[in-house]
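re: ur question from earlier - yeah i can do the single chain one, its not a big deal. heres the input i used so u can compare w yours
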Amino acid sequence: MLTVLCELLDLALNELLVGKVPACTPGKRGPTSRLQRQIDAVAQLRKSKQRFVSKMLDNLLAQNEEQQSATGRLILSL
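and the output i got, formated as tokens:
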């Protein structure tokens, strides 16, 4: 529920809960990216949930890497 509110308000979870705006990355302008807000929200989760999210990301990235490798092999075999 809080993540939906954060998305609607375009705020990171820590901004919503604490009221502080994180320091901007030097050289980067504009609002915080959606991915960065999600990373901030995951950082606020319990360690067990962080590990779950991390495993999901690992699986997704590995799956993507396999697909890219398979595509590369198809291109080379043509």
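Helices lie at 2-9, 13-18, 34-43, 47-77. not sure if urs matches, ping me
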